[in-house]
Automatic annotation (TrEMBL), chain A:
Residues 92-104 have a biased composition (Basic and acidic residues). Belongs to the snRNP Sm proteins family. It comes from Gossypium arboreum. Residues 120-129, 140-162 have a biased composition (Gly residues). GO terms for cellular component: Lsm2-8 complex; spliceosomal complex. Gene3D superfamilies: 2.30.30.100. GO terms for molecular function: RNA binding. Binds specifically to the 3'-terminal U-tract of U6 snRNA. Coiled coil: none annotated. Residues 15-88 form the Sm domain. The lineage of its organism: Eukaryota, Viridiplantae, Streptophyta, Embryophyta, Tracheophyta. Keywords: mRNA processing, mRNA splicing, Nucleus, Ribonucleoprotein, RNA-binding, Spliceosome. This is U6 snRNA-associated Sm-like protein LSm4.
Automatic annotation (TrEMBL), chain B:
Keywords: mRNA processing, mRNA splicing, Nucleus, Ribonucleoprotein, RNA-binding, Spliceosome. One of its GO terms (molecular function) is RNA binding. This is Sm domain-containing protein. It is found in: Nucleus. GO terms for biological process: mRNA splicing, via spliceosome; nuclear-transcribed mRNA catabolic process. Belongs to the snRNP Sm proteins family. Transmembrane segments: none annotated. It comes from the Eukaryota.
UniProtKB/TrEMBL annotation, chain C:
The gene is LSM8. Keywords: mRNA processing, mRNA splicing, Nucleus, Ribonucleoprotein, RNA-binding, Spliceosome, Transferase. It is found in: Nucleus. Its main location: nucleus. GO terms for molecular function: mRNA binding; transferase activity. This is U6 snRNA-associated Sm-like protein LSm8.
């Protein structure tokens, strides 16, 4: 499982059902390299781990000052770590499994070649998924395949994830 | 030009609004966002920098200095947030945020 | 046992991570990528001190960015469970200086 898939799942499943907040976006904690922490709801993230949080509480390095901000954008490379709600990992596993079930054998490669040939405008929506899966299961090209699918797969892969 | 697909945050909604920018190295600036590009270079007008503690350059103080019209280099931008709605608050966590 | 390159062989095993800021985090490796970003499940931090035993802070599910990781190591659970952490004293690690 790729760390960014987990993060993407945290974003792709914006709603966690709880009793008090039936549709509350996932709450995460982000610590930056400078020691500041940000608690907020993950709205969006990308392949560079840049993240967009809403309803944020910022805590200074020493934990003695606090700020509330409606939203903020954090550059990925300033992040030290992210704390993700425990249930997200089960969601990723569910997703990968259900996607693997749907994948007919050999689909990954066939579609992959087709994608190189043209702009990929007339691919079925499932293409992104198939590609993603094959990228996930082969060990060598894993990361690369995943991110390539994300960038070039455009719409298809975006939907697969969201 | 400005609305690149892969940017996580659409800065268009912040144009002509106050933003707070934290830069690598610890500088912290607020100003009115006048422009930006996909590399996160920012143009801020009437920018004000928060001066920092002599002893701990990672700590900002309430002292400021006026910078005027500036460009923030995208590679140095760590964090962008709107100033509108951003306030210092009392400890919102029941226990100090040991996380 | 560990075979093959990289962290693949450690997936689903308990590992110990030392971060650039000198923390020691122990958890189950769930995933990683080319940048050594890692997913740690059921993780906890071990806080070392010379004055009292090792404190364990529960962290849960973490994504640690690769550029903040100094060391990743396999944890021998048998050896580890034989440790009496509450009586272990150690200096905390200093952060990496760039």
């Amino acid at each position: 499982m790729l760390p960014l898939s987990l993060l993407k799942t945290a974003q792709g499943h914006p709603m966690v059902r709880t009793f008090t907040f039936p549709r509350m976006p996932l709450h995460m904690l982000v610590e930056l390299k400078n020691g500041e922490t940000y608690n907020g709801h993950l709205v969006n993230c990308d392949t560079w781990m840049n993240i967009h949080l809403r309803e944020v509480i910022c805590t200074s390095k020493d934990g003695d000052r606090f700020w509330r901000m409606p939203e903020c954008y954090i550059r990925g490379n300033t992040i030290k770590y992210l704390r993700v709600p425990d249930e997200v990992i089960d969601k990723v596993q569910e997703e990968t499994k259900s996607r693997a079930d749907r994948k007919p054998p050999g689909v990954g490669r066939g579609r992959g070649r087709a994608r190189e040939d043209g702009p990929g405008g007339r691919q079925p929506k499932g293409a992104g998924r198939g590609l993603d899966d094959s990228a996930r299961t082969t060990s060598g090209g894993r990361g690369r395949g995943g991110s390539g699918g994300k960038n070039t797969g455009g719409r298809g892969s975006g939907r697969g994830r969201g | 030009m400005s609305g690149r697909k892969e940017t996580v945050l659409d800065l268009a909604k912040f144009v002509d609004k106050g933003v707070q920018v934290k830069l690598t190295g610890g500088r912290q600036v607020t100003g009115t966002l006048k422009g930006y590009d996909q590399l996160l270079n920012l143009v801020l007008d009437e920018a004000v920098e928060f001066l920092r503690d002599q002893d701990d350059p990672l700590k900002t103080t309430d002292q400021t200095r006026r910078l005027g019209l500036i460009v923030c280099r995208g590679t140095a931008v760590m964090l962008v947030s709107p100033t509108d709605g951003t306030d210092e608050i009392a400890n919102p966590f029941i226990q100090p945020d040991g996380a | 046992m560990s075979t093959g390159p990289g962290l693949e062989s450690l997936v689903d095993q308990t590992i110990s991570v030392i971060t650039n800021d000198g923390r020691n985090i122990v958890g189950v490796l769930k995933g990683f990528d080319q940048a050594t970003n890692i997913i740690l499940d059921e993780s906890h931090e071990r806080v070392y001190s010379t004055k009292e035993g090792v404190q364990q802070l529960v962290l849960g599910l973490y994504i640690i960015r690769g550029d903040n990781i100094s060391v990743v190591g396999e944890l021998d659970e048998e050896l580890d469970s034989a440790l009496d952490l509450s009586n272990l004293r150690a200096h905390p690690l200093k952060p990496v200086i760039h």
